[in-house]
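thread: overnight batch results

M.L. [08:02]
morning all. the overnight job finished for the chain we discussed friday. pasting input first so we're all looking at the same thing
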Amino acid sequence: MASYEFLAGCYDALTTDVGYEKWADYLERHFAKSVLPIRAVLDLACGTGSLTRALARRGYEMIGVDRSEEMLAQASEKCRELEGEPPIFLHQSMDKLDLYGTIDACVCCLDSVNYVTRPRQLEKAFQRVHLFLMPGGLFLFDINTPEKLQGLDGQVFLDETEDVYCVWRAEYAPRRRVCSYFMDLFQRRADGLWERGEELHEEYAYEPAELTEILRRAGFSAIKQYGGLTMRPPKLGEARIFFAARKD
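M.L. [08:03]
and the structure it wrote out:
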């Protein structure tokens, strides 16, 4: 089963509760603390570009990168009517990141880091981010914690709208440290008939200390952790942790 080939067309319909403006507000709180003025921002694993668009509307020069051509097609269409300089979208994987110039900040949101299921590949991705950041540049990302991923094991979820129906189940493999999501998707076509798709998504359970060490090896400093969409340290049992790191 592939990832995002079918889901791309109905991803936005299934994620209306994300609150991208709230996420953009949170990122800007970190931007405001940066010594380096933040203008050029990379949205790594940008998906359908909802966060890219939210930040572009706030005046940032945006670059969106994703490994899914289908998701990028949705992102490009979504940002077509933006005023000012439109975002640039690039079809690349994280560990092969190759930009045309430097950036002031990189954001990688909605547990996209968990989707890199090999730590060595993630370290290469962090090294590429570090390479293209300006000195003083900021790297922000979040993860689903191991506690959250382990707690999903065996659970079944249902998401539906008028035109989309999604059933997915989660299985956690302790030895692999991977949570697998098996998705059955149904989408209503223009002719009223329903089309079915199947997808498999996997997330790796990174320990926060492990990610701190990977960031250090990639060259980052001033590494801090935050709980949820807050500016406080993570609490015990936190479901989502944010990382902020700087390139000296």
